[in-house]
């Protein structure tokens, strides 16, 4: 099950925010909860959930929910 709801739950767990607060327009540092330290927590949650190891160049590109969906597609996960 690789759905947008699953991805939103990953964000909610990583940032300890309500899942309803997560949408495709959410961007790095747009909310106080998404700072450089919590970004690392997000990466860990993504790697754990999707059982992948994300390359550094991809981590640096992951600046929004929309960009993360694009990166996950590279790893074989179509999020819809």
Total number of β-strand segments?
0
Gross morphology is globular
In whole angstroms, how far apart are the ends?
A: 10 Å
Percent of residues in helices comes to 40-55%
Would you write up a description of this structure?
- By secondary structure, the protein is mostly helical.
- The chain has helices at 4-15, 36-50, 56-61, 65-74.
- The longest helix is centred in the middle third of the chain and has 15 residues, at 36-50.
- The N and C termini lie close together (10 Å).
Main features:
globular, mainly alpha, 80 residues
Strand and helix layout:
Blueprint lengths: L3 H12 L20 H15 L5 H6 L3 H10 L6
Helix pairs in contact: 1-2
Question: In a few lines, what is going on in this structure?
Answer:
This protein is mostly helical. Helix content is 54%, strand content 0%.
